[in-house]
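User: Working on a comparison across species. This one is TauD/TfdA-like domain-containing protein from Saccharothrix coeruleofusca. Can you predict its structure so I can line it up against the others?
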Amino acid sequence: MTGIVPDRVDAADPRARRLLAEAGAVVLSGLPAVPDSLTVAAALLFGTRLRELYPHRTRHSVDGGLVPLHADSFDVVVDVAGTPTRRRHPDEDHVLVMLARQAPSGGESFALDAHAFTDSLPPDLRAFLADSDVDLYGRWAGTRGLPATPRVGRHIEHTRTGRRITRRTDGAVPLHRDPDAERVTAMLARFDDAVARVHPALPRFTLEEGDILVLDNYRCWHGRDPHTGERTTHIQTLRTADAG
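Assistant: Here's the predicted structure for TauD/TfdA-like domain-containing protein from Saccharothrix coeruleofusca:
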């Protein structure tokens, strides 16, 4: 089974770093339910290995639908007074999600070990994910802030230091004028179908207000079930010294 139910520990508990490394996810408790706690949690977890924090964002939903399995990554560079400024990075290696307001019902979370899941796929699909370049965000072309240049990459790659990245984005399309576009489109559809089949069977876990779900964004995908009423989360992505 590739599903993950993370342990919950106090944010100041020294075991948190080990639990995150072992399982790819951990839930931190004991901090105020405010956005600043995301930065505090990141500092406690990663210490001097923390390199870049990206601006936190708040997600507020009313009667929200399913958020399917995904990895948090995006490529957003904006112009601030004439200076290019990165607000998101395609290879953010960790994400922190704080539940600030619990929905009256629903909204349970789920997570998956993406390395183990993709390793279990049929050999030809697994080879496609590791060997075929795609435009990772091409489906979102024209969104303000996205670069005009396609972001070319593979779903399974390794960093300079050998760390594996297993990506999941619903923005992937074949490269512009790729002669193999028909096959790439078909393989992307097979990949989507495989992900859709696995998520209903994943174990669910419930976050309490103030809990911070921390995920190794290179290894784990996550999502949440539909909910009724209002639900609010604060999210922050980051890069550590291990991202290079």
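For your comparison, note: The mean pLDDT is 94.

User: Helpful, thanks.
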